[in-house]
Amino acid sequence: MNVSINGLFPVPVAQIEERSPTEKELSFIKDLETTNNYQNLTSKDKNVLDKEELSDLRRSIQHHIDNYFRDGLGAEKDCSLKITQSWCNYNDADQSHHLHNHPNSAVSGVYYPQADHPNDNLQFHSPLLIFNQVVQFNHKPSMFNAQGCILPVKTGTLFLFPSYLYHSVEPVPDRKSTRISLSFNTFYTGFLGKEQDLTALKIKVED
Questions:
Q1: Which domains does the chain have, with CATH numbers?
Q2: Which of 19, 23, 28, 160 would you label with 11, given CA atoms 20 to 30 Å apart?
């Protein structure tokens, strides 16, 4: 008897070791005006990647988004992902980031201008909600019953992931420096679908 269990429909999460921010970029990010955001602080500016001070960083991030969309997801050439909103989050000792996802976005991302390696991480939560409706039953953790996945981060790390994917950040009581993350959303722009399939759709995201 030949029995196999197949892991179908994996979630594409890209982890990229991008460059660290320049002194000018980091200074700009640290000087942004902040406001309370549940268990941490967030920038009042929700379009930080539109600023000239971060233009080089935006170009680099857009390059990785294009590769993720084309090579990772196999997207057509006449459709692309455009960054919509972008903002910074700041976590000091004992501060966390609530469980959330990103509505009205196709692919989201987070870049770390400053992180406390190896203490900092990003926790993704399984989209397979059936396993969240029952008391945890597994005594042998595996890729098929995992409730979540914790990935380490360090300064310069960039994650790209489907915007529906829930994620959160646990507090680090003895952190050495403020954790700073730069998050962003994207949306489709260009031509989607096929006219012969009656799925044709033209979308233009304004600058």
A1: 14-136+143-203 (2.60.120.620)
A2: 19
